[in-house]
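lol forgot to send this yesterday, sorry. struct tokens for the thing we talked abt
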């Protein structure tokens, strides 16, 4: 189950991603804001982060104008590894190396077609299970 969250800038991209997931029979929960509302990106980062922390969802997608604010907010939450990716190489690498559980994107940075390819890469790439990467991910949880 994928948790999706967006602020007002990410509404159109969110709709396109939901349509993409619908067409592939991939389940998701929408925690994002609706059309034409002003909103605060930390609210949606926290809602998606909590869904992952509670294991209601195993991955998340977050969208704001740049992807920066919403990824910063998500990364303050324990166990959350949100990766801001605007290319497929990074989306693949962050799944393989960081076991990123959230993909963040900026709706004002890239187009929808590109975003859908990044989503496809992110959700279809499994973590490598490499010992080195497991160790480094464990280090992220240390104070
Ligand atoms: C909203 O104007 C914008 O600041 C927000 O979507 C995001 O880009 C913040 O990082």
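and heres what i got for the seq, position by position
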């Amino acid at each position: 189950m994928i948790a999706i969250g967006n602020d007002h800038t990410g509404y159109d991209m969110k709709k396109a991603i939901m349509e993409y997931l619908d067409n592939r029979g991939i389940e998701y929960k929408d925690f994002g804001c609706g059309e034409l509302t002003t909103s605060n990106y930390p609210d949606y980062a926290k809602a998606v982060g909590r869904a992952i922390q509670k294991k209601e969802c195993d991955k998340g997608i977050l969208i704001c104008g740049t992807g920066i604010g919403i990824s910063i907010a998500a990364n303050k939450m324990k166990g959350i590894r949100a990766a801001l990716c605007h290319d497929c190489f990074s989306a693949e690498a962050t799944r393989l190396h960081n076991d990123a559980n959230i993909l963040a994107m900026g709706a004002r940075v890239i187009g929808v077609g590109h975003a859908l390819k990044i989503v496809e890469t992110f959700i279809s790439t499994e973590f490598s299970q490499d010992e080195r990467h497991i160790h480094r991910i464990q280090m992220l949880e240390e104070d």
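Residues 7, 9, 41, 64-66, 68-69 surround D-ribose (CB under 6 Å). anyway ping me if u want another try
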